[in-house]
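User: Teach me something about this protein's shape.
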Amino acid sequence: LRFAGYVFQSGFSSACFYTMAAASAFLMTGYLGRSASEFGSYFALFPCGFFLGNLVSSRLTRRFSIEGMVITGASVNFLAIAAQSAVILSGHVSPLVLFIPGALITFGQGLALPNSTTGAMRVIPSLSGTASGIGVFCQTFLGALFAQIYSIISDGTPMPMVWVVLFCSIMTLIAGSIPFVLKVTGRAAGT
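Assistant: First, the predicted structure itself:
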């Protein structure tokens, strides 16, 4: 259960990013009528968020548990998407409404991803290579799956992005909570 929590946390977190990346390109050019070069400028916020999240993670992981960093990253992801969803549902859509939460999503990924990968590999250390491979597969598969779901239900408005990313962020938070709860309740590492 602990392994599944780590793997699905990173997978659904990646699904948030892939879906947001796919949707933001369309919404910037098709919905907001902005240029591709303007999209590219705003899109730079995504890797900057991830870089900063990794930087913070490298400084904090030694002081806090892996489980704590994973749940913190998942919480940042969820809170950013919940705030974005509320703003979009209130009728306001702008580049900053798309990209500030996107940067926070990738910041949360930067906090959680190194730790969820390490956590998954520590469940059964003799199978750490397999665990790492399954984790990366889950990230790319769920990312591609939910980006495709978004493209299928896309209707020219931001609403399909809101629903897909909100669902994925809820799943990120649930999956990220599993290792944390198991640690707090004292369940065995291999569960």
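Now, about its shape. The mean pLDDT is 94. Helices lie at 2-31, 36-43, 45-60, 66-89, 95-123, 128-153, 159-184. If you'd like, I can walk through any region in more detail.
User: That's plenty for now, thanks!
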